[in-house]
Amino acid sequence: MDKKKNISMAVIKRLPKYHRYLGDLMKNDVDRISSKELSETIGFTASQIRQDLNCFGDFGQQGYGYNVSELYSQIRSILGLTKVYNTAIIGAGNIGQALANYTRFEKLGFKLKIIFDINPKLVGIRIQDIEIKDIDYLTDYLKQNPIDIGILCVPNNSAQKVCDILIKNGVRGIWNFAPVDLVVPKDIKVENVHLSDSLLTLSCLLNDIE
Ligand code: NAI
């Protein structure tokens, strides 16, 4: 696990794609694959793949390629997918409800335990059999039920306040959908998801400057 500390953010960002492709290869009973073959499906260059995978072990063998299941399990371990994370969604509006309805996160080990909202009209409603609770109950709940990841789907003006409560009560990871730069202590990990950034990237590509 020490090796993980030396892995660059750029490599970490590519790992989910390796995980996805190697998972597909396993499903198709592929035992081994060369960096060239992997490159043809995954879209990274063969030398990029060799460099990336060298970061966390000696998997490739000249003339043999990579052992798919070994590599897959190593990547799962580096991605922290060998354990289960308890998650809570805060804000059960459009995004919160869409995420709560997406059950595939649970297959990856992210278990949605509870949903909170401030709107009394939403409190009591069930999504995928999980009841939406009143936000006033958040602190009490967290004190009794450890949550690893808080999924922030509240409006901008509430995001920092809710984030502070989560952190104060033991949450160490924030998956932030609100377009706000959260201020958090160093040991807290925040991953921001901004769909509009991705859309603007597409717009930029469509309007290639000559
Ligand atoms: P929404 O208005 O449908 O849902 C927000 C929910 O948060 C509402 O149900 C509201 O009652 C609840 N809420 C408000 N204050 C709260 C508090 N203090 N505690 C608990 N619940 C509270 O909004 P939508 O469309 O789901 O967007 C949610 C957030 O995501 C917003 O910050 C929005 O700007 C952002 N957003 C992010 C995108 C992305 O790509 N990450 C894309 C679109 C929106």
Automatic annotation (TrEMBL):
<keyword id="KW-0238">DNA-binding</keyword>
<dbReference type="InterPro" id="IPR036291">
    <property type="entry name" value="NAD(P)-bd_dom_sf"/>
</dbReference>
<comment type="function">
    <text>Modulates transcription in response to changes in cellular NADH/NAD(+) redox state.</text>
</comment>
<dbReference type="GO" id="GO:0003677">
    <property type="term" value="F:DNA binding"/>
</dbReference>
<keyword id="KW-0678">Repressor</keyword>
<keyword id="KW-0963">Cytoplasm</keyword>
<keyword id="KW-0805">Transcription regulation</keyword>
<dbReference type="InterPro" id="IPR036390">
    <property type="entry name" value="WH_DNA-bd_sf"/>
</dbReference>
<feature type="binding site">
    <location>
        <begin position="91"/>
        <end position="96"/>
    </location>
    <ligand>
        <name>NAD(+)</name>
    </ligand>
</feature>
<dbReference type="InterPro" id="IPR036388">
    <property type="entry name" value="WH-like_DNA-bd_sf"/>
</dbReference>
<dbReference type="GO" id="GO:0005737">
    <property type="term" value="C:cytoplasm"/>
</dbReference>
<dbReference type="GO" id="GO:0003700">
    <property type="term" value="F:DNA-binding transcription factor activity"/>
</dbReference>
<protein>
    <recommendedName>
        <fullName>Redox-sensing transcriptional repressor Rex</fullName>
    </recommendedName>
</protein>
<dbReference type="InterPro" id="IPR022876">
    <property type="entry name" value="Tscrpt_rep_Rex"/>
</dbReference>
<dbReference type="InterPro" id="IPR003781">
    <property type="entry name" value="CoA-bd"/>
</dbReference>
<dbReference type="GO" id="GO:0051775">
    <property type="term" value="P:response to redox state"/>
</dbReference>
<dbReference type="InterPro" id="IPR009718">
    <property type="entry name" value="Rex_DNA-bd_C_dom"/>
</dbReference>
<feature type="DNA-binding region" description="H-T-H motif">
    <location>
        <begin position="17"/>
        <end position="56"/>
    </location>
</feature>
<feature type="domain" description="CoA-binding">
    <location>
        <begin position="80"/>
        <end position="181"/>
    </location>
</feature>
<keyword id="KW-0804">Transcription</keyword>
<keyword id="KW-0520">NAD</keyword>
<comment type="similarity">
    <text>Belongs to the transcriptional regulatory Rex family.</text>
</comment>
<dbReference type="Pfam" id="PF02629">
    <property type="entry name" value="CoA_binding"/>
</dbReference>
<dbReference type="GO" id="GO:0045892">
    <property type="term" value="P:negative regulation of DNA-templated transcription"/>
</dbReference>
<dbReference type="Pfam" id="PF06971">
    <property type="entry name" value="Put_DNA-bind_N"/>
</dbReference>
<comment type="subunit">
    <text>Homodimer.</text>
</comment>
